[in-house]
Amino acid sequence: MVARKLALAALTVIPFALAAVDRAQARTIYDGSWNVAVNGQTADCQGTFNYSVQIVNGIVGYSGGDASVSGRVGASGAIQVRVVAGGRSASGSGRLSRNFGSGSFRGRSATGVCAGTWVAQRTGG
Description:
Strand order of the largest sheet: 1-2-3-4-5-6-7-8
Radius of gyration: 19 Å
Structural class: alpha+beta
CATH superfamily: Quinohemoprotein amine dehydrogenase alpha subunit, domain 2
Number of helices: 1
Helix content: 10-25%
CATH class: Mainly Beta
CATH topology: Lipocalin
């Protein structure tokens, strides 16, 4: 009787688990190549810097080698990103549409607080 209940419970859970795996690996409308212009607006990080990033299955990636980037884009386009480079780190958030995006970031540089904004434009599918 216990084995039968366990089997029934497993059969009930498996379809939901498989559906979750499919969604986690699903392509999103934000997937593709993006150019991101980061505009530092405090004394510790003034200037504009451009980066090319990739979004694959809603996961943000950067292969430039000078920084470690991790992040995720939600179904609504809300994006959260964390960047670490040397002794510096920053967290950013914002929103993407199908081809454009914008947001803000805040972090720490070697000499203090760093903050600013960013804009993004899709460069490829």
